[in-house]
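Researcher: Next entry in the queue.
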Amino acid sequence: MRPLALAASALALAVALPLAASQARPTAAASARTILPGHWEYDYRIGPIPAGGESKCLKPADVEQFSRGICTRKYRCDYTTNVVSNGKIRLKGTWTDKKDRVAPVTADGAYTPESFKLNIHMKTINGLPLAGVMTAKRVSAECPAELTASK
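Model: Structure for this entry, 151 residues:
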């Protein structure tokens, strides 16, 4: 059961939003073509097994990051393929941890302004193949006080 818990944690960390910040800043028009800010709920699965869920308050800066690809603060993410447009998402690249261990990753999916679904395939830094799905939906334009207070 422990490997499954570790894999679930890896998937949740790998796809958690807000995504790590990047130096480039797309225009507001680019943001409007992806997802909208507000209160979002996420569900994670590894294969058919539920691996958790969470609620997040996405700010406009988080929405801007969406088009730059999946990443967390724990990794350096480099994508040779990064397509986020016209309702489709396609990513291919590597995640490198703080010890310079590299894990290949691909993701594909679809998005609307108020939802998205990503199919993620990766190999952990130990070579273990991992496949998962993250689905998310926007619950409201306004974030609950408990989510905005924790920021």
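Model: Residues 1-31 have pLDDT under 50 and may be disordered.
Researcher: Noted, moving on.
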